[in-house]
Design a protein that fits this description.
396 residues, alpha+beta, 48% helix, 11% strand, metal ion binding
């Protein structure tokens, strides 16, 4: 038996799978720069238009928030470029004073969406970016041949914004949670000074509505998944985040032109049944892929996210679910086969993994170790054994 953990995660080594699939510092810096350009362009112009175009009683500044995989810290390099791309989700939030029974004034949704799209058209023209207008729930900007930024548009009650701004300033100065906020904001290069609010206080913002291209308001809580997933990472550790990234990379490798399980469905499915095993990402990946192969056939709901209202696996048809389950089972078999080889067959073990994850798995046979089985024994749950029946006997 072989121990393959170091091929995935090995401290201070840049060639391990976990490091190779991460966005580079240069890519992150470029996307942060694009995000900041969008923020700085929209912030004063939306404020100016809130009275003139959106018919609000007073001028208000929008707020901004990085969401999605960069917020979860699960963004990875595409397996195939330019067929696949990195994405940065950057929400625009408008404080609204007038709140009707079902949200902001109905007419504002279309005005809001069209306004921001016009403003972004001017920015794209000056930057040489491509504005894509085909999506119904966000505005997409192609900022490079390997990346795009999606900009969904939200509104929420103005008094709630005032509360979270005050809370964010207070938390930054008084406790450990504030220190965590500083770390997360630094990672995303965000600042309350520029209308960007740290993730930890957004949980207090409810009654969020999303504007659509068709001019409707849709109830939305973009932070529900983030809160739940980050709580699971707090519970289980960073290994959970890494394994989710490995499975996203597996998905990308086998669905070159898109499709397969969504990133969110993978994250939720894995986190629901996650069992950490320190120093054995290979074993945890195997068990997580096996779990995914079973649950991907049905609905994926989580009561801790809006009381299970959404099926996060609803984008796949039954045929697509069956295909995803088959490929996940084949992945499990490949990991199991790779681990089962004798010590002199390390090269074959690496090849087995590369067949399922690509050549980003390092061909480092000296990182493959002999497995004495102790890790599996420690993580195997104890089985309840019934007491033996002792029959009455007579002495004599």
């Amino acid at each position: 038996m072989l121990k393959l953990n170091k091929l995935f995660f090995y401290a201070d080594e840049k060639d391990v799978f976990n490091e190779v699939i991460r966005p580079s510092q240069e890519q992150r810096d470029y996307l942060v720069s694009c995000k900041n350009d969008i923020r700085d362009h929209l912030r004063p112009r939306i404020k100016e238009a809130t009275r003139k175009i959106l018919n609000m009683d007073k001028s208000v500044e929008p707020r901004f928030r990085t969401q999605g995989s960069w917020s979860y810290k699960t963004c990875i390099q595409p397996a195939y470029s330019p067929h696949q791309e990195m994405d940065w989700d950057y929400g625009v939030y408008l404080p609204v004073a007038v709140w009707e029974q079902n949200g902001p004034p109905h007419a504002m949704a279309k005005l809001y969406f069209d306004l921001v799209e016009r403003l972004l058209y001017d920015l794209c023209k000056s930057k040489g970016w491509e504005l894509q207008t085909g999506k119904s729930t966000c505005i997409r900007i192609q900022v490079a041949n390997w990346a795009h930024i999606d900009i969904p548009l939200y509104a929420a009650p103005e008094h709630k914004f005032n509360e979270i701004v005050e809370k964010s300033l207070a938390l930054l100065s008084i406790d450990n949670r504030g220190r965590s906020m500083v770390h997360d904001s630094a990672f995303l290069s965000e600042s309350a000074e520029f209308g960007e609010i740290p993730e930890q206080v957004w949980e207090d913002l409810d009654d969020i509505m999303m504007a659509t291209r068709s001019g409707e308001w849709k109830a939305s809580d973009p932070e529900a998944v983030s809160r739940w997933f980050n709580d699971r990472v707090e519970e289980h550790g960073e290994q959970l985040r890494r394994v989710c990234c490995y499975l996203k990379a597996w998905r990308d490798y086998h669905w070159k032109d898109g499709g397969g399980p969504t990133s969110v469905s993978i994250m939720i499915a894995i986190a629901q049944a996650f069992k950490p095993n320190r120093g054995r990402d290979d074993l945890v990946l195997e068990s997580s892929a096996e779990h995914l192969s079973n649950v991907i056939l049905g609905e994926i709901r989580e009561f801790g996210i809006d009381e299970g209202a959404e099926d996060f696996n609803n984008r796949l048809s039954n045929v697509e679910k069956t295909l995803a389950a088959q490929r996940a089972k084949q992945f499990v078999q490949a990991i199991r086969m790779a681990r089962s080889y004798e010590w002199h067959m390390k090269h074959q073990a690496i090849t087995e993994l590369q067949n399922k994850l690509g050549e980003r798995i390092p061909y480092k046979h000296d990182w493959v170790e002999v497995d004495n089985g102790a890790d599996e024994v420690r993580t195997t749950p104890p089985q309840r054994v019934s007491q033996p029946v002792v029959r009455r006997t007579k002495a004599g």
